[in-house]
Structures are given as C-alpha cells and as structure tokens.
Amino acid sequence: MILAGDPEAPVLVRxxxxxxxxxxxxxxxxxxxxxxPDGKALVARPEDCIKCEMCEIMxxxxxxxxxxxxxxxxxxxxxxxxxxx
Length: 85
What we know:
Layout: E1 11-13, H1 23-27, E2 33-35, E3 41-43, H2 54-58, E4 64-66, H3 78-82
Antiparallel strand pairs: 1-4, 2-3
C-alpha cells in the first residue's frame, strides 16, 4: 500500500506552491486528492491513481505533478545494437 507523502506515490503536491483552489481535487476522476484543513491538496488515495494527469494539467500554479513509472531498462542497450548483436 502506498501512503500519502510516500516517494513512490504517483502524484506529488508542492505545498509551498499550492494555493488551495481545489481545481485538482475537483478534476480527479478517481478522487485521489482531498483538501487538507487549510484547503491545500493532499494525496489521500494514491493507490487509486490512474495517472490521467488531469490534476497536473489543470493546476494553475504548477503545484501538482504526476510521476511517471520508471521505464524498465531494455535487455540489450545501445551498445548491443551498435555492435550488431
């Protein structure tokens, strides 16, 4: 289970940039985000995130970022392709 604030969470919220407008919360189709008592966004249910990026796209202050999954390294790197393997 991924917890809010976990570095593995799919959504990051920069609290210092968030003004608490609630746009990201309203736009999330899976209700991943909730408002904290001060109105700022909190990643409440990171395991439900489908990475649609609506929160990131709609945030007027660039305070929300959807983290892409790390791409798996190819079995053979560029060196293998360059060497004809």
